[in-house]
Amino acid sequence: MSSQILLSGGDKYYSYSGEVFGDVSAPATISMITIDNTGLRDSMVMIQPFYAIPVSTATPSALGIEIKLDDVTVIKQQTNRDAFEATSSLIEFKLFVPRNSKLEVISLNTSGNNVQIRGCNLLGYYL
Fold first, then answer.
1. 5-126 fold
2. Is residue 84 predicted with pLDDT exceeding 70?
3. What's the CA gap between 25 and 127, in Å, rounded?
4. Which of 55, 56, 65, 123 is the most core-located residue (most Cβ within 10 A)?
């Protein structure tokens, strides 16, 4: 799990989770990034999740992503393998984040793909 890091100019911040994966005991969700307070200015945030090749090819076994602002889900996506393969390298979420917000990026896990590698990168621009 990663937190916010300011860039040297002070007008942007970033965070990245690195590779995240579970095991047979992994819960239904795995936290990838948690920023407890995004700062004193509103920001535009880009989030790029990445996924390794699925372990299971069963339709309900695709991993997903959930993005929360102040404990409210604002993006939630979990798709089947065909859609995953067609878009996994093209996924990017852009969202407005009000100042002083808690921002969480969570991996939606499945029992068929607990050990599948996933992660995300985040870049925020203060407005």
1. Jelly Rolls (2.60.120)
2. no
3. 41
4. 65
**pLDDT 10s digits, 85-109:** 545 556 889 999 999 999 999 988 8
Q: What share of the chain is helix, strand, coil (3-state, %, to 5)?
A: 10, 45, 45
Place of tokens 């535009």: 44
Coil vs helix vs strand at 99: coil
Q: Tell me whether residue 46 is exposed, middle or buried, using C-beta atoms within 10 angstroms of its C-beta: 0 to 12, 13 to 18, 19 or more.
A: middle
Helices (H) and strands (E) in the chain, counts: 1, 9
> pTM for the complete prediction?
0.83
Tokens linked to 100: 């002083």
Token pair recorded at residue 40: 């004193």
Cα–Cα dist 3/49, whole Å: 16
Q: Please report where in the chains the tokens 């991993």 appear, as a residue.
A: 63
Task: Please give the mean pLDDT across all residues of the chain.
Answer: 82
From first CA to last CA, the distance across the chain in angstroms is: 26
